[in-house]
Write a structure and sequence with these properties.
By secondary structure, the protein is α+β, with helices and mostly antiparallel strands. Helix 2 packs across helix 5 and helix 3 crosses helix 4.
């Protein structure tokens, strides 16, 4: 039954991008691309492509620390992630 409930969420949202935003919001601090990819069950390269699009839309920002880039939600990204979480809770 839970499978069918998840399907309705996917009707409105692409699952991986939505879950990346929600995962960033739940984390509360900057995260790394490899960690996010594991959390939402996608490849690192797919997660990076999604995150690059989100950066263009000003939903996330990257902060380079040596060789590692950490990812943070922008204020707008925080609002979008909050709304996605609310919608998911209503649908599921």
């Amino acid at each position: 039954m839970a499978k069918k409930k998840d399907e309705i969420f996917e009707v409105f949202f692409r699952k991986k991008p939505a879950m990346i935003l929600v995962a960033l919001r739940k984390g509360g601090k900057s995260r790394y691309g490899s960690v996010l990819a594991k959390e939402v069950d996608c490849t690192y390269s797919h997660a990076v492509k999604i995150l690059q699009e989100m950066e263009k839309a000003k939903l996330v920002s990257f902060e380079k620390q040596g060789r590692i880039k950490s990812i943070n939600l922008t204020d707008n990204g925080e609002r979008v992630a909050e709304h996605i979480s609310r919608i998911k809770d209503i649908l599921i």
